[in-house]
Design goal:
434 Repressor (Amino-terminal Domain), alpha/beta, Rossmann fold, flat
């Protein structure tokens, strides 16, 4: 989402590198470029003005101006202000009540219903027993969508009954959640194309019926400033407790995300990072600022790695590596984990400095798919003992995976080199945790 913005801001910083001392003109020139980058990203102009004023106050100090590493000091200052702009600190859900009620709001098409299912899965993985309530009485397809999504993740749904108003459906869902000893009730509400009096009246009645401890507004990152205006209107009517950024994996300019927290004073709590229900993350302002400024996000990368592969599996893998018993089956497992982490591109973006150095280099995400197809076309015996794969077997594997014999040879040769490298590393008493391609 912030790729273009990040590139432009990082480009502005590069002009400061190599300078022994900074003067006010250097600072003004850099801030002018950052200003243009932010405005092009559709960040609210009031937010841009305040942001730049705070940055200038931070950098126009003797410590920064006379520093031996002025460009690094400026980046640190921008990082502090940008983190503050994005909300400052990570905002957790504040669950209270029996059950705790989370109400989702948003305009139509913002990804609200999908976010309800994603949030349900997130809470389920935290050990919570969740019931979702489909209270969009205006669009039957919304209730059906929620039912299908929640069924796929094993979460219960209570859809509105014929004749129920939205607030009655919410109130009855609360009663069922309480009787069923659910920990959390997630209420999905109706959206409209625009904020209107009817919508506000209905959602206000729903809030009174269930007394939610959290009211989360789903904000579409692709909607620009119109989404921020809607969020502000909902906050004034309902006192929103936080935001969920939807479609954060898109090529949107990101202005809404950079504006909404500052404009409303409410934190961004989650972001939807993909189409799968598991593509849902807690929003960390500090980490997001680091990614925008090219400083990487190793903490999120580590969390994704832990989520993609459990500790027991990694321990077994480490032992096999230590004994040089790593097989193509193990390699396949690691490729699955890499895909769950978002692919090679996402991993590289999270490594400090990697994104800038690899700029212009195309990452072929389909390479993982091809390698997996080749390994999956092998027999169990071939995966355990690649040495038995002769010319006829290679032709069979190529035909079965839809690739060429050359592709099969490349995978086998790469795996052989990887094994040799592991052996050398083990000889030096070192361990390799993730053998990526």
């Amino acid at each position: 989402m912030f790729d273009q913005l990040g590139e432009k801001i990082q480009k502005a910083f590069k002009k400061l590198s190599g300078k022994g001392l900074l003067n006010e003109k250097d600072i003004d020139d850099t801030l002018r470029e950052i200003r243009m980058a932010l405005l092009e990203a559709d960040v609210n102009f009031k937010v841009v003005k305040s942001f730049l004023a705070d940055v200038k106050t931070e950098v126009m100090t003797e410590e920064v101006m006379r520093s031996l590493t002025p460009s690094q000091q400026v980046i640190k200052a921008v990082d502090r202000v940008l983190t503050k702009l994005l909300g400052g600190i990570t905002a957790d859900l504040k669950l209270s009540g029996n059950p705790a009620v989370i109400m989702l709001a948003g305009v139509q098409g913002s990804g609200k219903t999908t976010s309800a299912a994603k949030l349900a899965l997130y809470l389920k993985q935290k050990g919570k027993r969740v019931l979702t309530a489909a209270c969009d009485t205006h669009r039957a397809a919304a209730a059906k969508q929620l039912e299908i999504l929640c069924k796929s993740i094993g979460v219960d749904v209570r859809s509105f009954r014929e004749g129920e108003t939205a607030d009655e459906a919410a109130a009855n869902s609360f009663k069922e959640a309480k009787a069923g000893a659910y920990d959390v009730l997630i209420v999905d509400t109706a959206g409209r194309q625009h904020v209107d009096e009817e919508l506000m009246d209905e959602i206000t009645r729903i809030a009174k019926a269930v007394n939610p401890c959290e009211i989360l507004f789903a904000i579409d990152c692709m909607a620009g400033q119109s989404a921020v205006d809607s969020a502000k209107a909902f906050d004034e009517a309902l006192k929103v407790t936080g935001f969920i950024l939807t479609k954060a994996d898109s090529d949107a300019r990101g202005g809404a995300a950079l504006s909404v927290s500052y404009i409303t004073g409410r934190p961004i709590k989650f972001s939807g990072t993909g189409e799968k229900l598991g593509d849902f993350e807690v929003f960390h302002p500090q980490r997001m600022s680091g990614r925008i400024l090219g400083m990487g996000d190793m903490l999120t990368l580590i969390e994704k790695a832990e989520k993609a592969s459990d500790a027991e599996t990694q321990l077994k893998l480490a032992k096999k590596m230590a004994k040089n018993q790593f097989t193509l089956e193990d390699y396949l497992t690691q490729l699955d984990s890499l895909q769950k982490m978002g692919g090679i591109g996402e991993v590289l973006k999270s490594i400090p400095g990697a994104a800038g150095k690899l700029k212009g280099i195309t990452v072929d995400e389909k390479a993982i798919v091809r390698v997996k197809a080749i390994i999956q076309s092998m027999t169990v015996k071939e995966r355990e003992e690649p040495s038995i794969i002769n010319a006829s077997r290679r032709r069979r594997i190529a035909a079965g995976s839809g690739t060429t014999v050359t592709d099969v040879n490349r995978v086998l040769n790469s795996f052989s080199e990887m094994k040799k490298m592991m052996k050398r590393m083990n000889g030096n008493k070192r361990k390799m945790k993730f053998p990526f391609m």
